[in-house]
Amino acid sequence: MKSRRVSAGLLFTLPLVAIALLYGHKIVATAHARTQSPTSAQSALAPPQQLSPEGQAALRAAIDSGNLAQLRWPDFSDYRKLVAEFYDSYGNSLPWVRGMQLSAQAQQAIAVLLQADQEGLSAEDYDGSRWADRLAKLKPTASQPSEADALQFDVALTVCVMRYISDLHIGKVNPKHFDFGFDIRSKKYDLPQFVKADVVDAPNVAAALAQVEPPYPGYQRTIQALHTYLAYAKEYNGPQLPAIQKTIAPGDSYAGVPQLIALLRVVGDLPADASAPADSAVYQGPLVDAVKHFQARFGRTADGRITAQTLADLNVPLSTRIRQMQLTLERWRWLPLGLHAAPVVANIPEFRLRAYDENFKVALTMNVVVGKAYDHNTPVFEDSMQYVIFRPYWNVPYSIAKSEYLPKVARDPNYLSAKGFEVVNSKQEVVASGPVTGDVLQQLRSGKLFIRQAPGPKNALGLVKFIFPNDYSVYMHDTPAQEFFAKSRRDFSHGCIRLEKPADLAVWVLRDNPGWNADRVRAALNGSPNQQVNLTRPIPVLIVYATVIVTEDGTVHFYDDIYGHDAALEKVLAKGYPYPG
User: Fold this and answer.
1) What pLDDT does 581 receive?
2) Same domain, yes or no, for 141 and 278?
3) What digits encode the pLDDT tens for the residues 496-514?
4) Which of 10, 390, 489, 574 could form an SS bridge with 210, CB 3.0 to 4.6 Å?
5) Range of the domain at 431
6) Can you give the CATH number for the domain in which 281 is found?
7) Which of helix, strand or coil describes residue 520?
8) What DSSP letter does each residue of 404-470 carry, written as one string?
């Protein structure tokens, strides 16, 4: 069984009112202890329910088929071997049923499944609305519960609990399905062993299942934001804001002002004590500041002007924002465990990079430029930064050379030399640094020769690049094109990540290399060409895709799905179990 971590604050109390009503007695769950009625205490101590020979045959048949019609998602073929192993370990008896009654742990497990929405999952995926009927057949007042009912209940609960654990721990869909470079195999639990050892007889099932969540503070902040937005959605269900014919500037009249006030108060952009008369149609005062705050949270230019884009953002239903959080939480679950080595994380839709310390506190942050949508997407993956190169050469990829440079060389043989490029062979020996002859151009077209840009301030990679060797040939680097960092949407590169503050990142990643302080970094930026500095220890690098970010101060930020990854994930999730594994 894989090791597990428990993050602070994960132990929680779950309401068990629905189950209590069915059973006619009060059930109290806490993080440390549980008070049981005599009946439930006795059932917890009783052995698993033994089956008749006919019942055992029916159990095996249900498991072998990998299908249980009573489930919301009947096909559990992807869990069939795990379920078989689980019941084999009990000699084909029913661990959730004791003396033809539900165990206390079964009741607690169902209570957790019914709260799955609070974890960014869906209670219906774990048979949320179906448990009441099953419970009614096995509750203490039921007359002669049948073995068939007990069997179907037990298998259904086993499948749902296994699905819940896996979904909460590693996500529903394998990220490899989307060509994302995250490997979840090492994170997988031995589910039969985990459920048997940690759940079936646990004194507190909620606490046991809380262990499986990702341990990262950012994940927990997103969970809390989800709870907040679920409450917002209950509080506010207003109509769409009125359409505009032109941009609404401060001081303009707008018929939607009262509704805008109501919306921004609910989502927290307009403070509760702010003076904004709801009977006025003039867009002014604190409401303008509230719109600026809203715009900033959505990655827009925070100018307080209600443009068509701002209006479109305001009119997105809160249910859609909740779904964004759920999709982001799914991707959080794909991340590797044990990132204690202070990772560098770049979030593509946010156009933002953060370097974290060993306690997952942000130590450095900056804007970045990522790959162009549609044709040069920056890939999503994890790797380790190994070294830094100061004043690098840029070896122009063949695809870029062919599409962007060779047509210009054909028109002007002096184009490369005028731009600081040279032609090299496979050994990086310079073949031509002046005009490009027809023969050299032909060899460039055939891929026998290559274009390289000399080091210097005009180099496309700027004065430093950060290498984390990967299958995508992607890295982080400086850039002379600083003007792009002032834009709100920053997808302009060919796939690599351009850095707003490359010198600061160099100081950060070299902080454990003896003698590499800020002064030495500045000297290297202006020193000899192509100086490679190996890191004392590798640094985890994560290129992620999250359209929702909750910062350390609790502010919830939403970003556009620029590559369509949210839409692709939504499409796969809509198909239900079994998901691509």
Assistant:
1) 82
2) no
3) 999 999 999 999 999 999 9
4) 10
5) 394-454
6) 1.10.101.10
7) helix
8) IIHHHHHH-TTHHHHTTEEEE-TT--EEESSPPPHHHHHHHHHTSSEEEEPSSTTSTTTTEEEE---
